[in-house]
Design goal:
It contains 17 helices and 14 strands. By secondary structure, the protein is α/β, with parallel strands linked by helices. Helix 13 links the parallel strand 10 and strand 11. It starts with a strand and ends with a strand. The mean pLDDT is 95. The site of uridine-5'-diphosphate-glucuronic acid has 21 residues, from helix 8.
């Protein structure tokens, strides 16, 4: 099928690469000329494992451009996958979605097309996008846009760092529209994934035993709500284990064992029960906030979701409290942060706990040193205002540190020579913000190990 994708961020580019790999003819559009130039040269503007390889393998089915004129008129499906960053009040800023919808309306030629919302937009946005496309079409063409297009929702559930795997081998595909024709077209588009009939790329092997992928084909509003309800549930699962972790610490229980013990009940499940500093990233914070805001438009409150947000906020404070408890005085102390990205295998810093923690420590008068195996360069570009010392190696972070905090559980950090690291520190205190290190081993090197819970 002929597909155009507006936006070459994590979602757009991953979707584009996967659909092209499956054999569809894909055009990716981005107004940022630098990004498009980079993609033309075979590089990617984001760090995502195997994306460069998949883009190269799908090259013959992929085009990149900056304007709508060559990409919109021909397309059967047009995906909107632009950013919806949080506004200062927490609600998603929809200006890029609006401009994409207007751009589609201006350029499409009147033959039937499905406009697919892939960006996470507030519930009800399908109708809003439809009205913008229609308005723009009528303004530019001077005639009515009767039944020539339809709007569908196709939420994504990919995780950064494993985005391609999640897209090619999803747990389910959700499509939502209020007309049968759009649902049929989306079904045809995703058929190779639903039936798992494509040849798996060698670097992204198909999980053993994966059969057909379930399809949820529903109405627009349900598809939109599924996305929010899923992210909020995952967020509250994490906050739940972090809340239990606080009690575990008081009663002397091991939160890792508790998580395993409850997670093996298949009704609960072991995943997303990893306790620690809590969630970051561009999705959970924004989506839980938007869900609460949407509910309030209907005079509803969502106390469970609100509590999950509050617990997540507290987890970050606990890092500072724990350091204060150990060091007694924070002013003038040197604290090293290992990890800046909001999770391993990405260079994404949005809503990363590391940023919040670094700010809090700087405000308290600490000298803060930071390192990240991948996100350091991006951090230097995006957080010039944050008065911290960027280090090229974890060893430099450890030099004369009063404490080290593991903020992002990169594999690289788990494998460090902690004995050598400890020898460089002023005092051997390690706060493991992800409960990811081996406390017994660290103890052998004279390190005072602190977990975040338990
Ligand atoms: C999340 C969802 O997992 C995806 O399904 C969804 O598509 C995506 O948001 C989105 O809406 O775009 P992502 O934000 O990439 O994906 O990352 P996750 O792997 O979900 O991790 C989010 C945060 O939770 C990270 O900071 C991670 O460290 C933290 N986390 C995760 C925990 O603290 N404990 C866990 O057990 C799992």
């Amino acid at each position: 099928m002929k597909v155009s994708i507006i936006g070459t961020g994590y979602v757009g580019l991953t979707t584009g690469a996967c659909l092209a790999y499956l054999g569809h003819k894909v055009t990716c559009i981005d107004s940022d000329e630098k990004k498009i130039a980079l993609l033309h040269s075979g590089k990617t503007p984001i760090y995502e494992p195997f994306l460069t390889e998949l883009l190269a393998d799908a090259k013959s089915n992929l085009q990149f451009c900056t304007g709508y004129a060559s990409a919109v008129p021909d397309a059967e499906l047009i995906f909107i996958a632009v950013g919806t960053p949080p506004s200062p009040d927490g609600s998603p800023d929809l200006r890029y979605v609006s401009s994409a919808a207007r751009g589609i309306g201006e350029h499409y030629d009147g033959s039937f097309v499905v406009v697919v919302n892939k960006s996470t937009v507030p519930i009800g946005s399908g109708n809003w996008v439809g009205s913008l496309v229609r308005e723009s079409y009528e303004q530019h063409r001077g005639r009515k846009a009767n039944q020539q297009f339809s709007v569908a929702s196709n939420p994504e559930f990919l995780r950064e760092g494993t985005a391609l795997h999640d897209s090619l081998y999803p747990d389910r595909v959700v499509i939502g529209a209020d007309d049968a024709r759009s649902l049929e077209m989306l079904y045809t588009l995703y058929r190779p994934i639903l039936d798992q009939t494509f040849a798996a790329p060698p670097y992204l092997p198909r999980p053993e035993g994966l059969g057909a992928v379930p399809l949820i084909s529903t109405d627009l509003a349900s598809a939109e709500l599924i996305k929010y309800a899923a992210n909020a549930f995952l967020a509250l699962k994490i906050s739940y284990i972090n809340e239990v972790g606080q009690l575990a610490e008081k009663v002397g229980a091991d939160i890792q064992q508790v998580a395993k013990g409850i997670g093996l009940d298949v009704r609960i499940g072991t995943r997303f029960l990893q306790s620690g500093i809590g969630w970051g990233g561009s999705c959970f914070g924004k989506d839980t906030s938007a869900l609460v805001a949407t509910a309030s438009e209907y005079n509803l409150t969502m106390p469970i979701v609100e509590a999950a947000r509050e617990i997540n906020r507290r987890q970050r404070e606990r890092v500072v409290e724990k350091l204060l408890g150990e060091l007694k005085i924070l002013k003038g102390r040197t604290i090293g942060l290992l990890g800046l990205a909001f999770k391993p295998n990405t260079d994404d810093l949005r809503e990363s706990p590391a940023i919040d923690i670094a700010r809090k420590l700087v405000e308290r008068g600490c000298k803060v040193k930071v390192h990240d195996p991948v996100a350091l360069e991006r951090f230097q570009e995006e957080y010039r205002d944050l008065a911290v010392i960027c280090c090229e190696t974890p060893e430099q972070v450890a030099d004369d540190a009063d404490a080290l905090v593991l903020v992002t559980e990169w594999q690289h950090y788990r494998e460090l020579d902690w004995e050598a690291l400890a020898a460089r520190m002023r005092s051997r205190i390690v706060l493991d913000g992800r409960n990811a290190l081996d406390r017994v081993k660290l103890g052998r090197f004279g390190i005072r190990y602190l977990g975040i819970a338990g």
